[in-house]
Structures are given as structure tokens and as C-alpha cells.
Amino acid sequence: MAWSIYIQVKHQPDLATSLQQMVFTLRQKGAMALLLVFVLMFFNWGLEARKWQLLVRSLENVSFLRAFSAVLSGVSLSINTPNRIGEYGGRMLYMSNQNKLKSIAATVVGSLSQLIITIIFGLTGLIYYINNFRLIKENGYFAPNFWENILLGLLVVIGALTILLYFRLQIIVAIFERIPVLRKAKVFVLIITRYTTADLQYLLLLSACRYVVFSAQYLILLDTFGVEMLWWQGFLMNAVIYLVMALVPTIAVVELGLRGKVSLYFLGLLSANTAAIIAATVGIWLVNLLLPAILGSLLLLGVKIFKDK
Predict the structure, then answer these.
(1) Residue 277 CB coordination number (10 Å)
(2) Residues 196-213: pLDDT tens digits?
């Protein structure tokens, strides 16, 4: 995959001109733009920390600073795990012993709220993509964008079921009650029945704000590296990229190659500057994932895993 990206960038028309433009835009607004992206990284994970703080407050009171540390530690442990499931282990280290396993269910609810927002924005972007970039195939058995429309319909159903489950979390508890092998673990998921509709709506609002923040980071980097496109078009195509990344199983440490390939495909429909697209993709991965993971690793050094009450 990395080789494929290299070939695409290498064969970009006027590559030298694009690199010169990248250097020029970086000199013009690079320092301020990179500083803004760096500051927004703290807003990004700060919003996630606020979500987690609210989710576990029925178990124990956690300060915002502790919640922020837990989130960064989760990022650190998640970087080598499929779909970042290590986040759950990193966060529960900051809970008291009797609440560690219970906090996992709370974290799942937070992830579910973020997934719902990703699906909603992603569907909006997918509709724009289907209506504006038709893949016409001559002598094909299906109409243009047939499979894209099938995918859209499937995602609408998945999104509707996810939202239903999110606002009817009691269904999960009922499943644990009916399956004998899960019945003993029911005590660890009962926390999800404590969230009111207002709580869940507020979590969706925080998730939407976080989505806007990390989308803005990517758009700022794209502009800084010289990718010319209308911001709203970039936002919609970026929404499709995030949707793909959310649905495809991957490991964070090797996610960069897939993210680069997907970004080249969708953003390449708006701009031919593949070198700048890859540069922005690498930049956002470094700022939003690798840097927090490094900070989280440092924080983990000070965590006492087993506490005595």
C-alpha cells in the first residue's frame, strides 16, 4: 500500500511545481497553521476526556485532568491494537479496582456516540460523492453507482440500528440476562442503564463538536500544504474518509498507509496535488495519534495499576 502511494505521488503531473507550491505555502502560513492544529489537538482529546468524565461519574468522581490523562493513556495502549480497543484498558487504569471493568461499558457508550456522528456525517458526504462523481462503466450490467447506492442503503440501515441501540441501551443488558455465559458479567454493564436521554443527547453534541475539531485540523493542514479546494467539498469528502476508516478493521500503527490510500482516492477527486494530500495525511496522523500516544506513554509511567482502598 505504501509503495502504491509512492508510485501515485511520483507520477503526479508537475510534481516539482507542487512541491515548490507546498514549500511556498508553508513559509507563508505554516507556523501559525501548525500551531493552530497543535492547539486543536488538545481540544480534540479534551472533548473526548469530557465525554469520558461524564460517562464514569456515576461510578466515581474523576477530575478533568485525570480524565484527560486516562484518554491519552488509552491512545498510547491502543496504537498496536485492532480498531484501538486498547483504549479501554488504558482508561480503566485510572479507575478504582472495583470500577475498572464497569468503566469499560461506559467507554463503549462514548465510542458508540462518536460512531453515530461519524456515520451521519459520512452518509452526508457519501450522498454528495454519489451525486457528483458518477463512476460510469460502459457495457456494465448495472447502472452507474449501483454498488455505491447499495452501500448507501446498507449504511442507512446500520446507522438507524446504531441510533436505536444507543437510545435503548437496555437492550444490551437484556442480552446479557438471556445468554447464560454472559449472565454473570451483567453487573459490569448495568452502568449503561443510568444514562438519561438528555445525557446521551449531550454526549452526541460533544461527539459532534469533536468531529468538527479534528475535521478542521485536517482541512487546515490540507490548505497549509497547498491543496486547493472549496472547504465544504473538502469537509464532505473528508467525512467519507472518516467513515471508511471507522468501518474497516485496522491497527493504528499501520493505519497511516490505508488512510493515505483512501485520502488520495476521495480528495484526489477535488485536487491533483497528491504530494500535498499525503503530507497533510501524515501530519494529522502525527499530531492527533502519535503525539498523544507519546504523551500517554509518559503518563502511564506514573500510574499505579493496583490500588488499595
Answers:
(1) 29
(2) 999 999 999 999 999 999
Burial of 39 (0-12, 13-18, 19+ CB in 10 A): exposed
CA angle, corner 295, sides to 291 and 300, nearest 5? 140
- In our burial notation (b when 16+ CB lie closer than 10 A, e otherwise), range 130-155 reads beeeeeeeeeeeeeebeebeeebeeb
Longest dimension (CA), the chain: 71
How far apart CA 50 and CA 210 sit, in angstroms, is 11
- pLDDT band per the 50, 70, 90 thresholds, residue 306: very low
First to last CA, the chain: 50
Among 188, 262, 190, 244, residue whose Cα is nearest residue 5: 262
Report the 10 Å Cβ neighbour count for 306: 7
Q: pTM value? A: 0.87
DSSP 5: H
CA distance 52 to 62: 9
Res. 182 pLDDT band, cuts 50 70 90: confident
Lookup: cell for 244: 471508511
Query: What are the start-end ranges of the H helices in 14-136?
Result: 15-56, 64-78, 86-92, 100-132
Cell numbers standing for residue 201:
443527547
Stretch 95-117: mean pLDDT: 92
Kindly list the distances between the CA atom of residue 190 and the CA atoms of 59, 120, 184, 294, in Å, as whole numbers in the listed order.
Answer: 11, 28, 12, 33
> Which tens digits make up the pLDDT trace of 245-294?
888 876 665 677 788 888 989 998 998 888 889 889 988 999 999 899 99
State how far the Cα of 200 lies from the Cα of 205, in Å rounded to an integer. Answer: 9
Report the interhelical angle of 15-56 vs 291-300 (nearest 10°).
40
